[in-house]
Amino acid sequence: MHAPIKVHMNALKRILRYIKGTVSFGLHINPSPTTSLVSYTDVDWGGCPDTRRSTSGYCVYMGDNLLSWSSKRQPTLSRSSAEVEYRGVANVVYEVCWLRDLLPELHTPPAHATIVYCDNVSSIYLTRNPVQHQRTKHIEMDWTYTLCMKK
Description:
The chain has a 4-stranded mixed sheet with strand order 3-2-1-4, covered by helices on one side. A hairpin with a 2-residue loop joins strand 2 (about 55-60) and strand 3 (about 65-75). The protein has one domain (about 30-150): Nucleotidyltransferase, domain 5, CATH 3.30.420. It is flat. With about 150 residues, the protein is an alpha+beta fold. Helix 2 (about 80-100) runs parallel beside helix 4. The chain starts with 5 loop residues before the first helix and ends with a helix. Helix content is about 40%, strand content about 20%.
């Protein structure tokens, strides 16, 4: 910003043209007959070609309306697809807990338990049976950290 050149001005103009063209875009929330939350999560294990880190993403729906979504590169390098999928599930569950705390304040408490969809069998097994094996000790440390942050 202290020494802009022509390339910077061209980038700024491109951003402003993009904003001008997308002003009418928005997120539409419509009335829905159901107030239950449903979430989906998926992970690309080791998908970043430079760092081999994984990218995780999730979306949370309330009825037909998208409430929350995220897609980001995970901060640590994972050893297996089960580990990275488990971390992805942990991220979406943390978000769902926050939404379930927020919705009653907006006078729309969720009616049922939240369903979390994940496509990795081993991470589903770990989620259902959280016995801490030697290979999952570092996952347990992340889980403990997440619980401490929630409090």
